[in-house]
Amino acid sequence: MELISRYLILIMVCFSIAAYTLTLNTGNDPEITILLVSVVCFLIALWLERSLPYRKAWNLAQQDIGVDLTSAGILVAIVEPLLKVLLPLIVAVFYASQRGGLLDGVLPLWLEIIFVLATVEFGKYWSHRLHHSYGPFWWLHAMHHSSERMYTLNGLRFHPLNYSLNFVIAMTPVMVLGVSPEAIFAYLAITQPVVLIQHANINLKHGWLNWVFSTPEVHRWHHSTQPSEANRNFGNALLIWDHVFGTFKAPEGFTDEKEVGLFNSSRASYPAKQCYFSQLLSMFRAPCCST
Ligand SMILES: [Zn+2]
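That is the input. Now the predicted structure with zinc ion docked in place:
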């Protein structure tokens, strides 16, 4: 348990990279590999929440399981597959009138992977900040922040429009530039384990890794009910852009008294205790959330 507590995310990322490398070398489907690795990470997170919880109270349902499971099902079964089909189609139409992407076959794979890591994380960072900065976008993002506990399923509680905007803003540049599918799949192999563990209620002590990855320890700040604490650590899986733009907040100081959930300014108006579809459609009803 000591090893897991200190290095869980690093172990997961290395396992995922190894599985992806094996897939590339054997010619198997990388999408299936990443899906299987994601399922393994998800199940391990659920097990560790029981055997190594950060807060035992966060393992108790708060009338949120229905919302979270519905959201997870819709994202995984409908939104994500649609985005994976539609965005490449749009980019293909773009290429019909162009000569091809600037980076098409230019860089070695390892350099492409670094480029994709930096570019996609940059897009996700700014998409996330946008959702914290403007009322209508915050209204969409409030679904993600409305849970009053941190646990694995939080990571899949997103308004479909919020999720789609993140995806399009982050992925369009690398696709238009003609980055190879291998590099994009490598990005997913590296980041998916982090994203799946990020909200988990696991008592990790990751030390220096908290400065690199968006671990549960640093991501808790992002879900604080205090705007000055929550408008930090926007990174999707890596924290590079939080360091660059000065929004990184170290894990120390998140005491037992700290609460997670919506800010006071949103709590009265956002229908956090209502069902998924009521929250989904609330964007069409006044009043819109303020940040
Ligand atoms: Zn947020």
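The mean pLDDT is 90.
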